[in-house]
Amino acid sequence: MGSPNFTAPPPDPEPPAVDAFLSAVDHAMNSNTLLLTADCDVPIAAGNRQNVLHAFLRSALFERLMHAADAGRNWHNLSDEYSSEPFQYPPLREGFHATVSPLDHEGFLTRLRWMLCEAFSPYGHHYPAADAERLVRGFTQELLGAEGPAWSFAAVSPDFLRSTGYYCGEEPQRPVYFDGSGSDTATFVHRELSFHLLLTNGSP
Asked: In angstroms, rounded to a whole number, what is the distance separating the alpha carbons of residues 57 and 161?
């Protein structure tokens, strides 16, 4: 069987509830939070999702979506600051594992709440529990619809994007994304032929 093929839905502004959650994570974790969404031509299940994810990370679409999300959220960290052109190197790093670890629906929600309420917040911007719950509820309803538990979830080891070297002293080779701290996260959410990849890189 050949490698799966990937397509992206038509470009569309992020719905307010999605933008509100991503912006709140940015504020709480001091992150450049990105959400990538794509479709696959094979059904995604627990047994093949790591292979599907790896194929997606190696695809040209992954890099295009990374650049589009980075520009769409006005970070512009993945393009040259003087030209808006992508750097000559891909954001994907060699030798990555991107190992998936299953989450159930409640574990996924707990992970989202953690981003807002418990993750390291260098400027003390944690959200009150009630505000976090409202943000998480709006985000998941917009992202997953009324059938949230019918989706599948996995944490992904955040070792597949180039590092800033902030915590490890590694010489950065731009473009960079992860910082090497506990605030680096990747979360894979999938159902049938559709999936989302949520990325954070909070740091001081």
From this structure: 9
